[in-house]
């Protein structure tokens, strides 16, 4: 559910100085563009969907992803319910971690489901395989190399589906058990704490229709800046948590018009099953 959407705003600092930034790997002379990467504290943290737009949607944790970006200065503010996506204290603090660009602040309420790759509910071995099939070389589904959270999906129209993911910078097994249990207790008493993420929207579609379930996939990915313990606690307790998403408008494989639709789509879900029948 969308609680409130702000207006696009300029945030961030020069990319070389940002603690989190988006990069494209350099290729040797004559080659095409390299991997799209999310870089944290100078180290590649995630490989993102390829530039082609016809390849599978992807977020894949890399071996150098070992850091989170929580900020002590706003922890008390985020323990409770945030009311405004344009909260200058919170947006300003996290905006200073990001590369300079246009961001759309959106305040969401999510009820996350923890997913382990290859098991029940895994997008990569489920919906993605139904559209793209198995990797032609490996004969296997894509693998994100991390547990992740699924929180929402909807039909955009008869030929397009939106899938939403919340991706921790480090796996939930790295979380401190005591802190997770503290948040479970708070949530069971009715508290709805707030997490913060930088988000991207990728639009991907196979070039050729050879699949059992062919359609465009919109992948909305929230990379957690703060809230790793909160998301795990919400998944364990079956409780909602707020998510302040700073959607990076220039960093995904989607146009400005697609990004502009997201708050309305996220607020009014339509059944994928129903729209396809």
Question: Top keywords for this entry?
Answer:
21% helix; 9-stranded mixed beta sheet; 4-stranded antiparallel beta sheet; alpha+beta; 7 helices; 277 residues
Biggest sheet statistics: 9 strands, mixed
Which value, in Å, is the CA radius of gyration? 18 Å
Number of strands: 13
H and E order: EEEEEEHHEEHEEHEEHEHH
List the helices and strands and how they pair.
Elements: E1 2-5, E2 9-11, E3 20-24, E4 36-40, E5 43-48, E6 59-61, H1 75-79, H2 88-95, E7 101-110, E8 113-115, H3 127-132, E9 148-157, E10 160-167, H4 177-188, E11 194-204, E12 216-226, H5 228-237, E13 241-248, H6 256-267, H7 272-275
Parallel strand pairs: 10-12, 11-13
Antiparallel strand pairs: 1-7, 2-7, 3-4, 4-5, 5-6, 7-13, 8-9, 9-10, 11-12
Task: Give the structure's gist in a few sentences.
The chain has 277 residues and is α+β, with helices and mostly antiparallel strands.
Write up what this structure looks like.
This protein is α+β, with helices and mostly antiparallel strands. Helices cover 21% and strands 31% of the residues. It is built from 7 helices and 13 strands. Strands 1, 2, 7, 8, 9, 10, 11, 12 and 13 form a 9-stranded mixed sheet that branches. The chain has a 4-stranded antiparallel sheet with strand order 3-4-5-6, with no helix packed on it. β9 and β10 (160-167) form a beta hairpin. The chain is globular, with a radius of gyration of 18 Å.
């Amino acid at each position: 559910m969308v609680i409130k959407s702000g207006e696009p705003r300029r945030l961030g600092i020069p990319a070389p100085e940002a603690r989190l930034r988006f990069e494209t790997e350099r290729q040797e002379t004559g080659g095409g563009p390299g991997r799209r990467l999310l870089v944290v504290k100078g180290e590649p943290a995630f490989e993102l969907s390829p530039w082609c737009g016809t390849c599978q949607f992807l977020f894949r944790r890399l071996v150098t992803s070992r850091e989170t970006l929580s900020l002590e200065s706003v922890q008390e503010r985020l323990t409770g319910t945030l009311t405004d996506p344009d909260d200058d204290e919170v947006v300003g603090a996290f905006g200073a971690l990001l590369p300079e660009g246009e961001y759309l602040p959106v305040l969401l309420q999510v009820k996350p489901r923890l997913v382990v790759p290859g098991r029940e509910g895994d997008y990569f071995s489920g919906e993605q395989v139904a559209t793209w099939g198995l990797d032609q070389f490996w004969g296997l589904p894509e693998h994100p190399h991390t547990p992740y959270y699924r929180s929402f999906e909807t039909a955009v129209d008869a030929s397009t589906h939106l899938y939403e993911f919340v991706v921790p910078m480090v796996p939930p097994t790295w979380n401190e058990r005591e802190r997770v249990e503290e948040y479970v207790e708070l949530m069971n008493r009715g508290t709805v704490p707030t997490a913060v993420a930088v988000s991207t929207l990728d639009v991907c579609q196979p070039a050729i229709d050879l699949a059992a379930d062919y359609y465009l996939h919109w992948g909305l990915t929230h990379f957690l800046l703060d809230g790793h313990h909160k998301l795990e606690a919400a998944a364990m307790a079956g409780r909602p948590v707020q998510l302040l998403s700073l959607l990076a408008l220039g960093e995904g494989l989607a146009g400005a018009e697609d990004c502009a639709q997201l708050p309305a789509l996220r607020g009014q879900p339509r059944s994928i099953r129903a729209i396809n029948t």
